[in-house]
UniProtKB/TrEMBL annotation:
The gene is hemN. This is Coproporphyrinogen-III oxidase. Residues 68-304 form the Radical SAM core domain. GO terms for molecular function: 4 iron, 4 sulfur cluster binding; coproporphyrinogen dehydrogenase activity; coproporphyrinogen oxidase activity; metal ion binding. It holds the Pfam family HemN_C. The keyword Oxidoreductase applies. It comes from the Bacteria. It is found in: Cytoplasm. Its main location: cytoplasm. [4Fe-4S] cluster binds at C83, C87, C90. SUPFAM superfamilies: Radical SAM enzymes. Its EC number is 1.3.98.3. Keywords: 4Fe-4S, Cytoplasm, Iron, Iron-sulfur, Metal-binding, Oxidoreductase, Porphyrin biosynthesis, S-adenosyl-L-methionine.
Length: 480
């Protein structure tokens, strides 16, 4: 949901080399199983589990006002919670309805939130990033999309700069070429298309029947219209998937040639996410099959020329994500990886999270609570966190590790005026076991993840998490 910090890493660091695929000797299933515990994805540090209700609207507005002195560009995230159909794997905050008129009151509340937020911001700061997520943003009618963009522009002033990053998540079942032309006219230049799997049996089991032609037609039109980057979302670990069936999906995806791919690991948590109760657990691939799917995914995509950015993200070498990683300027945020410079993120809508310098602030996940706050003329912040210096240092280290697959302790020490080796002595000691198992290498002040260590980067990052001991890791998904 935003873009974060930059780093001054040596051009000879691990991140500057081409991505390596775990070879037959490096791919160690027993090792991956042993380290396949639950842990954060570190789209933020501290994670959302550290947010507390003593942080309220006044704290958030003060953070907005403090941020003006930085002159950092802005990033806007807009949560559109509506979907026409519920996909059974979904863990997002959403509302199922086919009636687009139900979005009108929500759009009015969004505008009220924009007005209340903009009062505390210097809106001459450029809006470098815009992201619409959900739910399904393309649930909105074309007129409603245009109205929402007009409101955003009126309150914050949107950018026409060629290097802006204005993205929207799209369900190919609910969009056509007219949708894409309209989105382009509104200023969007990047699209993310949900695909998940092209196998009909899998699609039926997750309540998302989506023939390839829908995705292919949209991609062809998007390329013709000149959208800068297309991302496709896939999920492995869904019912009836096998290594062979997913390889067939990947073969078709590679033919479609998207600039980016996100290949997410399905986390089956039916006690937390009601739609997942519609999935028969017996139909899910077992742990061995999931590892085989992951291995094949990395091999096929890398052989097709994609760079394994980290975790579940892949990009073509000429895509801005891969270029940012080579330059040491990649960021980690609530949507995953981002190529843009550090921004202050304003999250708008139900469940949205803002990141303003040293503060996180979250809106309620319940729509009625969100509406009530705004109807009373106040921002809807229900919890958040102001980071202390230790949090900020650890956030920097974890983000660099997640983005660069290495940590330059000398650069960290210089940036924060600390002896990084001494400051993180406990974490480095914890990583010695990972070193013995071949997940990381230590060379002077550089700690680098090995090819197989990249797959377990979340585990490596956990060594630097000072708050993890106070949290139940069972609230998190499995690492692999």
């Amino acid at each position: 949901m935003s873009a974060h910090a930059t780093a001054a890493l040596s051009s000879t660091s691990f991140s500057s080399t081409p991505t390596e695929v775990p070879s037959a000797t490096a791919w160690n299933e027993a090792l991956l199983r042993r380290y396949d515990k639950s842990g954060p994805r570190y789209t933020s540090y501290p994670t959302a589990l550290a947010f507390h209700e003593q942080f309220g609207t006044a704290d958030f507005t003060q953070a907005l006002e403090r941020s003006n002195a930085s002159r950092r560009p802005l990033s806007l995230y807009v949560h559109v919670p509506f979907c026409r159909k519920i996909c059974f794997y979904c863990a997002c905050n959403k509302i199922a309805t086919k009636n687009t008129a139900l979005a009108e009151p929500y759009l009015s509340r969004l505008d009220r939130e924009m007005v209340l937020t903009a009062r505390h911001l210097d809106t001459s700061r450029p809006v470098q990033q815009l992201h619409w997520g959900g739910g399904t943003p393309t649930f909105l009618s074309l007129a409603q999309m245009g109205d929402l963009i007009d409101r955003l522009d009126a309150r914050f002033g949107l950018s026409g700069s060629a290097d802006r990053d204005y993205a929207i998540e799209i369900d190919p079942r609910e969009a056509d070429v007219f949708t894409l032309r309209h989105l382009q006219s509104l200023g969007f230049n990047r699209l993310s298309l949900g695909v998940q799997d092209l196998n009909p049996q899998v699609q039926k089991a997750i309540n998302r029947v989506q023939p390839r032609v829908l995705t292919e037609t949209l991609m062809e039109e998007a390329h013709r219209l000149g959208f800068r980057s297309l991302n496709l979302d896939l999920i492995y670990g869904l019912p009836f998937q096998t290594e062979k069936s997913f390889a067939e999906t990947l073969g078709q995806i590679i033919e479609l040639n998207p600039a980016r791919l996100s290949v997410f690991n399905y986390a089956h948590m039916p006690t937390r996410f009601a739609p997942q109760r519609r999935i028969n657990e017996a139909d899910l691939p077992n742990a061995d099959e999931k590892l085989a799917i992951l291995h094949t995914t990395i091999e096929m995509l890398t052989n097709a020329g994609y760079v394994h950015i980290g975790m579940d993200h892949f990009a073509r070498p000429d895509d801005s994500l891969a270029i940012a990683q080579r330059n040491g300027t990649l960021q980690r945020n609530f949507q995953g990886y981002s190529s843009h410079a550090q921004c202050d993120l304003v999250g708008l809508g139900v469940s949205a999270i803002s990141r303003i310098d040293d503060v996180y602030a979250q809106n309620p996940t319940q729509l009625d609570q969100y509406e009530t706050s705004l109807d009373q003329g106040r921002l809807a912040t229900v919890k958040g966190l102001r980071l202390n210096k230790d949090d900020l240092i650890r956030r920097d280290v974890i983000e660099r590790l997640m983005c660069d697959m290495c940590i330059d302790l000398a650069a960290i020490g210089k940036r924060w005026n600390i002896d990084a080796s001494d400051y993180f002595s406990t974490a480095l000691e914890q990583l010695r076991n990972a070193e013995q198992d071949g997940l990381v290498t230590f060379h002077q002040q550089m700690i680098s993840a090995t090819p197989i260590g990249r797959l377990l980067i979340r585990h490596l990052a956990m060594a630097f998490d000072a708050r993890l001991a106070d949290q139940s890791t069972q609230r998190y998904s499995k690492i692999v």
